[in-house]
Write a structure and sequence with these properties.
Keywords: Acyltransferase, Transferase. 32% of the residues lie in helices and 29% in strands.
């Protein structure tokens, strides 16, 4: 069940939001007060192209600031998206509701105490790669993404500043079948872009690659893992629950309705 505003751990939310920005960096980041305007012309990721408010009390001139941000998105040829987290000022949510905006794609942020989970030690089954090009090719193939996104995705991955493990599971005959990206930011490790190829699901590959990434991060000193998964992705939520991940908070996106 989603947590209520009264039982959110806002310091944890702030910290996970900050490491999330570093783990998936936008090309352009501008601030309007505590609002972060994130834009990445070459990549369509919603996390890279949205407005995120980082202080629940920063609600001055909301309408003016929202319109100003919308013009920046328009200049990039994109419709404005607002990412709602527990840090979003309630007046901003109220304004979007009143103006007919649509709330969509709820995402669950999960965390795991790596100091208590029983992960097999010994040698790593899958060592991370440092070859960005190889990883990007595998990521696009496994996700079924447009190959034309390769330069933009390579730019995002190359821009990640904290230590990063690029994990790929390959089949000798079929090529890449699973991918994951693990970003270690001090004692926190973020699992990003985890996917198993559609024709290879339900075979334990997701558990295999996430376990390898978590083991790598823990060996490097990470104490807590985090990841984000769309709330209606039941198979992924079941996998993460099996590992011991628990919900920290949720976020969702808002877009202008067709009548606005």
């Amino acid at each position: 069940m989603p947590q209520t505003d009264t039982d959110q751990n806002l310091p944890l939310v702030r910290r996970l939001e900050a490491v999330g920005f570093r783990a998936w960096p936008a090309t352009s980041v501008q601030y309007d007060g505590s609002w972060q305007v994130r834009l990445s012309g070459g990549h369509p990721s919603k996390r890279l192209n949205c407005v995120v408010a980082l202080d629940p009390s920063d609600s001055r001139d909301i309408g003016i600031r929202l319109e100003k941000a919308a013009r920046k998105f328009e200049a990039h040829g994109r419709p404005i998206l607002v990412r709602e987290t527990p840090l979003t000022p309630k007046p901003l949510i109220d304004l979007m509701q009143a103006d007919g905006w649509e709330r969509f794609e709820e995402v669950v942020t999960l965390t795991l105490d790596l100091t208590r989970i029983d992960l097999p030690e010994g040698t790593l089954d899958h060592l991370p790669s440092h070859d960005v090009g190889r990883y990007v090719d595998a990521d696009l193939l496994v996700h079924g993404s447009d190959p034309a996104l390769k330069p933009a995705l390579a730019e995002v991955v190359s821009s990640i500043k904290p230590p990063t493990g690029l994990f790929v599971i390959e089949d000798k005959a079929a090529g890449p079948v699973a991918v994951a990206l693990c970003v270690q930011d001090n004692d926190l490790a973020g699992i990003m872009s985890l996917a198993v190829r559609a024709d290879r699901r339900q075979r334990g590959l997701g558990l295999e690659i996430v376990t390898a990434a978590l083991r790598w991060a823990r060996m490097r000193g990470a104490r807590t893992a985090w990841l984000q998964v769309v709330a209606d992705n039941a198979p992924a939520l079941a996998l993460y629950s099996k590992l011991g991940f628990t919900e920290a908070y949720r976020y969702a996106y808002w877009r202008k309705g067709s009548s606005t």
